[in-house]
Amino acid sequence: VGVPVRSGTASRTIGIVTGGGDAPGLNAVIRAVHRAASRRGMRAVGFCEGFEGLLHPETTIALDYANTAGIIGRGGTILGTSNRGSFAVKTGLGEAQSLDPAVIAGARATLATLGIDALICIGGDGSLTVALELAKAGVPVVGVPKTIDNDLSATDSTFGFDSAVSMVTEALDRLHPTAYSHRRVMVLEVMGRHAGWIALYGGIAGGSDVILIPEIPFELACVAETVRAREEAGRHFTMVVVAEGAAPVGGEVSARTRPQDREARLGGIGERVTGELERLTGKEARCVVLGHLQRGGTPTATDRVLATAFGTTAVRLVEQGCFGFMVALQGPAIRMVPLADAVRTLRRVPEDHYLLTVARELGISFGDGRSTKQ
Ligand code: F6P
């Protein structure tokens, strides 16, 4: 796995699968794969409904100019996706279960029956872990990184992230006027299961006063202190962005389901923070959960370009017989990294990240008592 296998005969039919949660830019990858493949005389076949589409009775779409035209700016994935079912391997941070050998055998049988020579797997941490398992079982796989959370360590960024941050920024722009008009605390809960990138970038871009992220356990007393300090300084409203995976010091993340065969469904931290801030500050507070608005909608230009670059590079790796790799943005280049390295650790906001310093310079609080001066 992760070692170029040059078969000598170029792959002729490429399968594509989109797995895990959708992200703006998936269709741009699909389009790019089709275009780059057909220029080389290869066929591209899409599997429907995520990895489940690889199991009998498999569902596929033969990609052509008609069904890939005009999709570069369309959100979601024309192939459908799923983060449940037989291929759901992630159960928590750094925790995964192995794929059932019968499932791997079923996928291999489908690829053989359909004459698929290589499989491009587009996905986040979970789907790329599946891709790695398939690669270990001898399936010729190339990975394409995708997640709005931007938490894959081997790539500088993933498509979908920029679109999600734009949505958070727009939401804050809309919430700001109502917050100051009513002199309220406004809490915006955003996605970000293990990493706070969306909250950090969106919070800075949208002028938030408090940003709570999974990497920095918070104390609500410190957040309340920020609200009070702003009040004393004549700023009678406070904007708070909280990532769904953020948790208080010594506390648990807020989840709607328990982790079982798949990761827990997160949610509820926004309401918790809102209620507690009302109690601690005596100010009226409201909570908005942005949810899947961050994943839907049209991809930004940045995400379309990155997705397109990933798609064409993935086809080049297939052509060269470089399997067991993932395409990745590293500095000014799209490179290939072994799938095993791509899923080893998640990229979380490091303590010394420059944006934490920037935010603290502005007086933004992370709920850790280090920047309450207004
Ligand atoms: O991994 C991307 C992500 O958007 C997470 O931030 C979030 O926890 C999860 O997907 C939500 O998934 P679902 O669509 O199953 O609710």
Quote the beta fraction: 15-25%
Counting H and I runs of at least 4 residues, what is the number of helices?
11
> Roughly how much helix do the residues carry, as a percent range?
25-40%
Bound molecules: 6-O-phosphono-beta-D-fructofuranose
Radius of gyration: 22 Å
The CA-CA distance between the termini, in Å, is 53 Å
* SS-based class: alpha/beta
Largest sheet: 7 strands, mixed
Name the quaternary structure.
single chain
Query: What is the mean predicted local confidence, pLDDT?
Result: 94
Order of helices and strands: EHEEHEEHEHEHEHEHEHEHEEHH
**Quantity of strands, as a count:** 13
User: Looking across the biggest beta sheet, what order are the strands in?
Assistant: 3-2-1-6-7-12-13
**Apparent shape:** elongated
As residue ranges, the low-confidence spans are 3-8
Characterization of this structure:
By secondary structure, the protein is an alpha/beta fold. It contains eleven helices and 13 strands. The protein has helices at 26-39, 65-68, 101-114, 125-136, 161-182, 197-205, 220-232, 269-281, 301-320, 339-342, 354-362; strands spanning 13-18, 43-47, 60-62, 90-92, 95-96, 118-123, 141-145, 185-190, 210-212, 238-243, 285-289, 325-330, 333-338. The strands form three sheets. The protein has a seven-stranded mixed β-sheet with strand order 3-2-1-6-7-12-13, sandwiched between helices. A four-stranded parallel β-sheet has the order 9-10-8-11, sandwiched between helices. The chain is elongated. It binds 6-O-phosphono-beta-D-fructofuranose (F6P). Residues 21, 83, 124, 147-149, 191-193, 244, 265-266, 295 line the site of 6-O-phosphono-beta-D-fructofuranose. 6-O-phosphono-beta-D-fructofuranose (F6P) is lined by residues 21, 83, 124, 147-149, 191-193, 244, 265-266, 295.
